[in-house]
């Protein structure tokens, strides 16, 4: 009997030890991540903060390249390639618009096929190739027209189709690289942290609080140091630095390969949305059951989103019909023909975001003027401080400075006062967006007033290439629109992530980035329309070949009017969204409770 009791004790001790060792082993691994060999990620070998910091180098160099090119490209197109003012502006806005539109492609490939690591590596290499080609195209005399000293651009020989073709090839390689990697860098950074670990959870919050700051640092370097090198040393040197810095960032990025944590591809939300639309379209002639409990649902109760009456035409995607059964009577749930109610409700939530999405596009149209026509204005104005001449593209430093100042003031002064007065930690995301839209509208109004003053000076000194009016008159428009971006960027990012379904966070980030893209494209469209409408019949028009002989003030006034109208539409959309959200708050509780960390990211 004693021997049996000893045997039992040994078994118990052995079982406890095994359980303890298994628990300890599990605590040293990250449940939903693997290492570079495909094994569960070991915390002792895959650190959190250091690998995340390595990916920030890619983001800094991406901003350095994209903004360093964008803010000063209009002067190169006009001064070296001899393109008209409006055409130069459209080339820049099309380039920026394409860059942000391709973020959807990058996000789709990362989620569905490549994963974030491969996506960043591939598209960062593409961007490096594009900047290298751009450096070559600005260096070789054969790839640009002969120099011209004439004050009238129309009298100079424009770049031919081959020269413009090489320029476009390099620009759109850069756009492809930017769009492909931009949607993956922040997500790959968060992959390096374990949300279930208290220490790493705090580190992840620190990472995100510094991410936008890092972007701003890259932009600040672009509009100061890089623009100065382009103007004073040479374009090819400036773009060559972009290519070399991206190469260095890639080397640093690859150096962390063995320390990274990798998440498996989970499938793209775009496919899920297409499945719901396809299923609903295929059953558009069918009837909805009177009892909503008859609609198809296959997800556990804990993660379900309850049915809502809004956009009921989509509910037909969840109607079970005879086509959902095979010939032998077995049930077949084809996701392209039958979708669960939760999947349909996720799509409904995305649709509810669209009015807010649409009314934020125009802000990025006004933003586009800061890196196109405002830079052209600066080239005609007095820019010297003592013996130093400020590069025209570097005037956007006031734009970046406004972003940093507005965010600092909001964080240090407004939030404490608002919390003391209203009992809330700062403005809501919709209030942040509203402030940004209002400031941008005021910025365009200020730009129109300043342009009236500049044009009056231009009429008095029509023979001079540099007008006797200080460039610091442009500071109000840069500062107002820059402060607007500080509020609207953070407000948009917070809104689209926190208000989207849990399974569509990546999709909502892509939706946010498309507002930037469409804003730039709308700027190009608006410039073309205004040019045709005001410049027909041989007239100069508002946006002619020479901005000193045009009416840029009228164009800015038009944008100011559109911005104020858009601001009113946003307030209506925000009121509609809040009313719908309040009514449907119980349906959102599960998502909010289960994805608090993910929503903040």
UniProtKB/TrEMBL annotation:
Gene3D superfamilies given in the database record: MFS general substrate transporter like domains
Swiss-Prot/TrEMBL keywords: Membrane, Signal, Transmembrane, Transmembrane helix
Keyword Coiled coil: no
Its membrane topology: Multi-pass membrane protein
Subcellular localization, as worded in the UniProt entry: Membrane
Source superkingdom: Eukaryota
UniProt keyword Zinc, yes or no: no
UniProt cross-references to InterPro entries, sorted A to Z: MFS_trans_sf (IPR036259), POT_fam (IPR000109), PTR2_symporter_CS (IPR018456)
Pfam families referenced in this protein's UniProt entry, alphabetically: PTR2
Transmembrane spans: 91-110, 116-136, 211-230, 236-254, 353-370, 390-410, 430-450, 470-490, 511-535, 555-577
Region forming the signal peptide: 1-23
Family, as annotated: Belongs to the major facilitator superfamily. Proton-dependent oligopeptide transporter (POT/PTR) (TC 2.A.17) family.
Protein name as catalogued: Uncharacterized protein
UniProt lineage: Eukaryota, Viridiplantae, Streptophyta, Embryophyta, Tracheophyta
């Amino acid at each position: 009997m004693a021997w049996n009791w000893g045997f039992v004790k040994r078994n118990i001790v052995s079982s406890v030890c095994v359980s303890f060792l298994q628990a300890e082993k599990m605590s040293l691994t990250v449940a939903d991540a693997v290492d570079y060999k495909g094994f569960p990620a070991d915390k002792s070998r895959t650190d959190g903060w250091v690998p995340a910091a390595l990916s920030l180098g890619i983001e800094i160099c991406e901003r350095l390249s994209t903004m360093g090119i964008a803010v000063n490209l209009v002067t190169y197109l006009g001064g070296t390639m001899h393109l008209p003012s409006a055409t130069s502006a459209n080339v820049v806005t099309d380039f920026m618009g394409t860059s942000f539109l391709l973020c959807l492609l990058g996000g789709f490939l990362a989620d569905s096929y490549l994963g974030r690591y491969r996506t960043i590596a591939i598209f960062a290499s593409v961007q490096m190739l594009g900047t290298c080609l751009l450096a070559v195209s600005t260096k070789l005399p054969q790839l640009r027209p002969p120099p011209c000293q004439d004050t009238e651009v129309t009298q100079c020989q424009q770049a031919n189709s081959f020269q413009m073709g090489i320029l476009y090839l390099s620009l759109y390689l850069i756009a492809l690289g930017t769009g492909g990697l931009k949607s993956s860098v922040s997500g790959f950074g968060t992959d390096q942290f374990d949300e279930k670990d208290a220490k790493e959870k705090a580190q992840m919050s620190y990472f995100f609080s510094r991410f936008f700051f890092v972007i701003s640092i890259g932009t600040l370097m672009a509009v100061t140091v890089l623009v100065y090198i382009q103007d004073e040393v040479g374009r090819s040197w400036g773009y060559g630095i972009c290519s070399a810095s991206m190469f260095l960032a890639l080397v640093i990025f690859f150096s962390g390969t063995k320390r990274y944590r990798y998440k498996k591809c989970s499938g793209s939300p775009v496919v899920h949305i297409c499945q719901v639309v396809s299923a609903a379209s295929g059953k558009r002639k069918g009837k909805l059951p009177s009892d909503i409990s008859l609609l198809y649902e296959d997800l556990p109760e804990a993660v379900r989103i309850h049915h809502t009456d809004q956009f009921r035409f989509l509910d037909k995607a969840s109607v079970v019909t005879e086509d959902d059964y095979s010939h032998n009577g077995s049930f077949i749930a084809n996701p392209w023909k039958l979708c669960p109610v939760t999947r349909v409700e996720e799509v409904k939530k995305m649709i509810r975001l669209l009015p807010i999405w649409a009314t934020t596009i125009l802000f990025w149209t006004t933003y586009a003027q800061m890196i196109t026509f405002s830079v052209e204005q600066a080239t005609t104005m007095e820019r010297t401080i003592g013996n130093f001449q400020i590069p025209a593209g570097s005037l956007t430093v006031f734009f970046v400075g406004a972003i940093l100042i507005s965010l600092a003031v909001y964080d240090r002064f407004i939030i404490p006062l608002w919390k003391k007065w209203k009992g809330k930690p700062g403005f809501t995301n919709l209030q942040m967006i509203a402030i940004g839209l209002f400031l941008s509208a005021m910025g365009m109004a200020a730009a129109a007033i300043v342009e009236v003053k500049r044009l009056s000076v231009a009429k008095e000194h029509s023979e001079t290439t540099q007008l006797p009016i200080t460039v610091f008159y442009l500071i109000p428009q840069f500062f107002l629109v820059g402060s607007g971006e500080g509020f609207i960027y953070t407000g948009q990012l917070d809104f689209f992530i926190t208000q989207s379904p849990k399974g569509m966070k990546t999709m909502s980030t892509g939706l946010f980035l498309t507002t930037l893209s469409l804003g730039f494209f709308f700027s190009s469209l608006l410039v073309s329309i205004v040019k045709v409408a005001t410049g027909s019949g041989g007239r100069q028009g508002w946006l002619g070949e020479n901005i000193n002989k045009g009416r840029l003030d009228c164009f800015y006034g038009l944008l100011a009017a559109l911005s104020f109208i858009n601001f009113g539409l946003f307030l209506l959309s925000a009121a509609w969204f809040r009313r719908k959200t309040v009514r449907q708050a119980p349906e959102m509780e599960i998502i909010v409770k289960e994805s608090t960390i993910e929503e903040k990211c």
